[in-house]
Design brief:
Elements (H helix, E strand, L loop, with lengths): L1 H43 L7 H17 L2 H16 L1 H16 L10 E6 L6 E8 L14 E7 L6 E7 L3 E3 L4 H9 L17 H12 L19
Helix pairs in contact: 1-2, 3-4
Length: 234
């Protein structure tokens, strides 16, 4: 039973990423198909060819991407965003989602970011982060001045993290893309474990010395000869 359970969990772990990816892709395709057919139904009636809605959806996304690249359409889009940016509660939700989407856009800020290792002086701990700001210029009064950078420290297994302002000499650039760093942080850097350094094991000489010290008994002190009792005085 133990071996069967090992086989089961091994197969489950192997097929789970593929199954989840296919399932999410299926949901996206079905949603795009239904949404596109909702717009086409008044024009085509009951006529339907599998994949028609998906094709129309992809063409619509390409058209929107082309229009957004034009300055005039961006002005119209900014005007349409005003209700979302001025409503108190909706403003927080919309601005957060828009900033997150702009980050992953081809011209987003991620192209200007740098993956770094944060080392605090006097500490041997290293933290991987992203430099999101190269200076404190433009920030409200109260921040410490000097050559300081903002470093975003992502957290594993969740969307979130901390942003710390540290001196520029505390960070060291790393030859890694932002996407790779975010993906590795999401899974707690479990991928690529073959590059980690193992814990050093004791050398053969040290083991021999330890074995010899254990095998050699500690010499007991030599017994002293008993002293003769002093003669009694007459």
């Amino acid at each position: 039973m133990k071996r069967l359970s090992v086989y089961f969990f091994t197969g489950l772990i192997t097929i789970l990423p593929v199954a989840l990816t296919v399932y999410l892709l299926y949901i996206f395709l079905v949603w795009t198909e239904n949404l596109a057919l909702g717009f086409l139904r008044p024009f085509i009636g009951s006529f339907y060819i599998p994949g028609m809605g998906l094709t129309l959806g992809v063409l619509g996304i390409l058209l929107i991407g082309y229009l957004v690249s034009k300055q005039r359409f961006r002005s119209i889009l900014s005007f349409m965003e005003r209700p979302f940016m001025n409503t108190p509660v909706i403003k927080s939700i919309y601005s957060s989602l828009k900033s997150f989407a702009d980050y992953f856009s081809p011209g987003g800020k991620q192209n200007a970011q740098q993956v770094v290792v944060l080392r605090i002086p006097g500490q041997e701990m290293e933290v991987v982060g992203l430099v999101t700001r190269s200076s404190v210029d433009g920030l409200p009064p109260g921040f410490m001045q000097g050559t300081r950078v903002a470093v975003y420290l992502p957290m594993g297994y969740m969307i979130g993290g901390y942003t710390v302002f540290v001196p520029a000499e505390w960070v060291q650039p790393v030859a890694m893309s932002v996407e790779e760093a975010m993906r590795s942080s999401l899974i707690a850097w479990m991928a690529g474990a073959e590059g980690t350094r193992p814990v050093p094991e004791p050398q053969a000489g040290d083991a021999a010395v330890d074995a010899q010290s254990e095998a050699t008994p500690v010499a007991a002190p030599a017994p002293t000869a008993p002293q003769e009792p002093a003669e009694r005085k007459a």
